[in-house]
Write a structure and sequence with these properties.
This protein is mainly alpha-helical. The protein contains three helices and no strands. The longest helix has 28 residues.
């Protein structure tokens, strides 16, 4: 059986959704939870890429004006 978020399931049931549809929706949301939790690593990579790009641009400008 797939993992589901019980609070989401309870909210769907309280709103009047059928039990089988509420269970499937809660399982689908739980499956996406893992995708959103790894965005911190992606932001770290973007920060490093941005830093390297700025360093290269600064190096090019220094080289142009020193010559």
């Amino acid at each position: 059986m797939a993992t589901m978020i019980s609070e989401v399931y309870d909210a769907f049931i309280a709103s009047g959704a059928p039990e089988d549809k509420a269970r499937k929706a809660a399982e689908a949301i739980a499956a996406y939870k893992g995708r959103f939790s790894k965005t911190g690593n992606d932001l770290n990579i973007l920060k490093w890429m941005n830093g390297v790009t700025w360093a290269l641009c600064l190096g090019i400008l220094v080289r142009l004006f020193m010559h």
